[in-house]
Design a protein that fits this description.
This protein has 5 helices and 2 strands; from the N terminus they run H-E-E-H-H-H-H. The protein is mostly helical and 136 residues long.
């Protein structure tokens, strides 16, 4: 098993945790914000579960599948985080299509709300783009 396949299993776990945040008592505040920063809905949960299952399958199938997952997932989530900074909404949950733009905001709350997608997407994209060989 290659390092990229192992990384896919890590993404499976991280994304399943993200999908479960709304269902763990104490992680959301009275306004429904996870950690008091961002709101997650059933569409976000479905996206996280689908992405997690994609990561799991890619990790099981092959190094090539793992690399492809990391590149495509990484670029999609990184782009979603960037859209979040500039518009207040992402495209993966169709938020930019259903909400008017809030405009660019470089504040700490906006950055923190988008940090999971920026971080997970950036790490995945770099790992996938640089992980060409199949050595463990």
């Amino acid at each position: 098993m290659t390092n990229l396949q192992k990384l896919c299993f890590g993404y499976f776990i991280a994304l399943m945790i993200a999908a479960s945040i709304n269902y763990i008592p104490g992680l959301t505040d009275e306004n429904g914000l996870a950690f008091g920063i961002f709101a997650l809905d059933i569409f976000d949960d479905a996206l996280h579960v689908a992405s997690a299952l994609w990561a799991l399958v890619a990790g099981i199938v092959s190094h090539r599948a793992a690399r492809m997952f990391l590149i495509l997932f990484g670029l999609a989530y990184l782009g979603d985080g960037i859209f979040g900074i500039f518009t207040g909404y992402g495209f993966l949950d169709l938020g930019i299509f259903t909400n008017a733009s809030l405009g660019t905001d470089w504040s700490l709350p906006r950055f923190l709300a988008n940090l999971p997608h920026l971080g997970l997407g950036g790490i995945a994209a770099v790992a996938g783009l640089l992980g060409r060989d199949s050595a463990a």
